[in-house]
Structures are given as structure tokens and as C-alpha cells.
Amino acid sequence: MNDEIAGRTRVEMVMATIRQRIAGRSLTPGARLPSVRGLAASMKLSTSTVVDAYERLVAEGAILSRPGSGFYVANQAAPFALAEAGPKLDRAVDPFWISRQSLEADEADLKPGCGWLPPSWLPGEGMRRALRTLARAEGPSLADYGSPLGLPPLRQLISRRMGERGIEASPDQVLLADSGTQAIDLLCRFLLEPGDRVLVDDPCYFNFHALLRAHRAKIVSVPYTYSGPDLELFAQTLAEHRPRLYITNSAIHNPTGATLSPVTAHRVLKLADQFDLTIIEDDIFADFEYTAAPRLAAFDGLERVIHIGSFSKTLSASARCGFVAARPEWIEGLTDLKIATSFGGGRMTAELVLNVLSDGGYRKHMEILRQRLARAMTEVSARLKGFGIKPWLEPQAGMFLWCRLPDGIDAADVARAALEKRIVLAPGNAFSLSQSATNFMRFNVSQTLDARVFAVLGDVLGR
Fold first, then answer.
1. For residue 114, is pLDDT > 70?
2. Which pLDDT tens digit goes with each residue over 165-208?
3. In this structure, what DSSP letter does residue 78 have?
4. CA–CA distance from 348 to each of 130, 141, 173, 178 (Å)?
5. Which residues of 77-105 are buried (b: 16+ CB within 10 A; e: fewer)?
6. Does residue 425 contact residue 84 with C-beta atoms inside 8 Å?
7. Radius of gyration of the chain (CA)
8. Sheet harboring 305-310: ordered strands across?
9. Contact between residue 314 and residue 369 where contact means Cβ atoms under 8 Å apart
10. d(CA 426, CA 110)
11. 3-state SS assignment for residue 245
């Protein structure tokens, strides 16, 4: 009986492997599958196991058998499935699990694992003033498409704001996007071909993984340290894999809260020159800083570095607006691509964002918000330590604590148990390509102040 169960499991493992390759488009319609002997050797299985798996896939209609020739992917391939495109993970540590649970949660649910501030922490009054101003605007602001580059006054304001952080970019080097995520999506469309390698930090923002898989990129990773990527391993990875892109945060790293050091930044840029690497620098947490950290784009002058940002973290996730700052010739190509994929820009949202950012109340709001986050960081850190949950570092700014759970505790198990009590957590392996963050968890301190969060953690951890 045990042998039968083991055999059945091996057959299902082969079937899952082939399904995953078909879903991820590494096996396209009409493509020949690996030979029975070849796959059996690579997976260290018997040929009879592979034959059984292939025959079952034929019965399902997923593949075709051509006697004397081999097995082929059926022409009617299944639609591309992002959840199947990456390594098979426990659903509790799948990036989509965190996103879906956070986005679909009821107002009564608690979300210490989400990546945004509570509504009461955002500049609601400033948004209402801007909406009233917009309601009195002339027809074009409310009805017309935006220009392909985006609203000129907002691009000018973004250019000035980047200048405060040492990044020199004219308004014509700034392209507005619907969000930071759309900015990365446009850049991936512009710069990548399916199968290109892309380097990410480990850990990194989990939606980088999902977005890159949507573009059929091959993802490689390098460990992230207190001051940036591990330079020795960064150099080794570039030499071995020759990635086309590197996507990172440099101001306030997500999820660790670490800050890039000037020494690391200079070394990363030298290696980028050596290995012809393009860098996408995601700077959506810029306004949370007390003191501006080094920016790769400032040192590089937007030669190899593309700088992106958005306003969903500090203004409103409902007012989707982001931007790309890049070399002029790249902005030209990206503008055409934006027209092809979304036509005109969201003029109304751009007008709204411009009104809020131009209001003197925004800077005052951010000063208060930074202080509020600092207090929450101190309070949440202290309370988590009481459960044996230790921050990896104490961040200089921002909303995230990257924490190690007590020895022997699997963050995915904790997340599943907490979800039963309507609390959404963010287990570490969702952020880790290498799956090396089993006992880590990211906490959003602004969403972790409710006493119920700590009561559930205590119950789950037995503290």
C-alpha cells in the first residue's frame, strides 16, 4: 500500500511538472515534451512512472501522443496561469495569497500584513479640498484624455521633488503612469523579452515576483543586507546569469526597511556598467524619510538607472498615479508603448494629485505622519519582542518591520491560523525567491496597533 501511494505521488509530481511548464509557456502548443528516458533521468524516476504520467496527461487532453515520435503539447493549451508560472509554493506563502486576502478583506478584518496605511492616516481633508477644486474645473479636466507624457504641471512638480533628492531630470524625462506597478509593467514590456533574466533582492516586494512571471522572465535573486545587496554575491550573480534588469528599492527597502549605503550604491553602479545591467529603482516610500538616503539615479544621472515612484502610499490607493524618470530616448519609446497599452493618461487623477501635492497642508501632514509612524514603530517593535518576535533591524523610517519568529515557528502556519481569526499576515517566504524566509514575517506597524493582533499572535504562538 505504501509503495502504491508513493508511486501515485511520483506520477502526480511528473504531471504537475509538465502542467507547470505548459502554464508558464516554457512548453508551448505543439512543442515536443522531454523524452520519457530523458525526463526520468533528470527527475531520478523510473521510466514507467513517466510513461504513466504522460498517458494520464493524454487522457486529460493536455498533451498528444504520436507513436514513433513522442509526446507533444496539445494545440489547445490552457490559458496562462500566473499561479502556476513560478515555483510551486504553499498557497499561504504565495504572493497572490497576501494580495487577495488584503484587498478582499472586510472593514472589520485586521491587516498587519498589507502594504498601505489605514485611511485615517492619509490626508483625507486635503483630498476633499482637491476634489472640490477639481469639481469646479473646466470641462477638459473632467472629460478629456490626458497627454501621452502626462499633465505638464505635475511632471514639473515631480521633477523638482526629485531634484531635492539629487536626481536631475527635466519634466520631459518624466512620464506619468497609472501607478508604480504600471510603471514597472511598461518598463518590462519595453526592455524584456520572454526568457530574459531579471535580478531581484532576496527578500523583495512580493509583487515583483508576480509581475516578472507575467512577463515570462527568469528571476534570479541576491541576498539583501543592512546596507543593500550582498556585493560579493551580486557580482557573482551578474557574472553567472547576466541578467537584463535589476529591480530594487533604494530609499526604504520593502520588506526589510533597510537603507542603501553610498559605498554599496557606488559598487552596484560599477558592476552595472561592467555587466551592462539596467536598474529599475522603485522609490514609492520617498516621502516617509526624515533624511534622504542615497539614490542610485542620483549617482548615475539616469544613464543605467530608471527611477519610478507613485503616490498611493501617502495620498490614496484609490487615486492611482505613478511616474517613470528615464533617459530621453527611452521616454520616447515608453510614451509610444503607453499609447499602445492605455492610450491617454488619467488626467482627472493627475489633476487631483497635483492639487494635493501643491497644497501647503501636504508637507505638514507628512511631518505628522512620519512622527506617528516612528511612535508606532517603537510601540509595535517592543510588543513583538515580548512574544519572542525579533526585528531584523530597527528601520530609520517607513512602515515595515521585518521580523524573525521564534525558532521552529513556520510563518505560513501562523498566517493560516491568524486568517481563521480574520487577521491577514505576510509570511516571509512570499518575499523570498530562495524560500529562505520560512520563519520571517513582515509587519506594517500602522496596521498592527490593534490589541486583537497581539491577542491572536499570543494565542497562535502559545505565549
1. yes
2. 999 999 999 999 999 999 999 999 999 999 999 999 999 999 99
3. P
4. 11, 6, 21, 11
5. beeeebbbbbeebbebbbbbbbbebbeeb
6. no
7. 24
8. 174-177, 322-325, 305-310, 278-282, 245-249, 197-202, 218-225, 228-229
9. yes
10. 12
11. strand
CA-closest candidate to residue 461, choices 384, 377, 402: 384
For residues 119 and 423, give the distance between their C-alpha atoms in angstroms, rounded to a whole number: 17
Q: What SS3 state is found at 201?
A: strand
In sequence order, which residues have a C-beta less than 8 Å from that of residue 1 and are 6 or more positions away? none
> What is the DSSP pairing of strand 305-310 with strand 278-282?
parallel
User: Shortest CA distance to 220 belongs to which of 432, 439, 442?
Assistant: 432
- Alpha-carbon span 210 to 188, nearest angstrom: 12
CA 158 – CA 372 distance, rounded (Å): 25
Cβ-based neighbours of 63, under 8 Å, separated by 6 or more: 18, 33, 54, 57, 71, 72, 73, 74
Instruction: Answer yes or no: is pLDDT of 140 > 90.
Output: no
Q: What is the pLDDT of residues 351-377, one digit of tens each?
A: 999 999 998 899 999 999 999 999 999
CB atoms within 10 A of CB 165: 17
Contacts of 232 (CB under 8 A, 6+ apart): none
Helix axes 206-214, 180-191, angle to 10 degrees: 40
C-beta separation of 415 from 426 below 8 A: yes
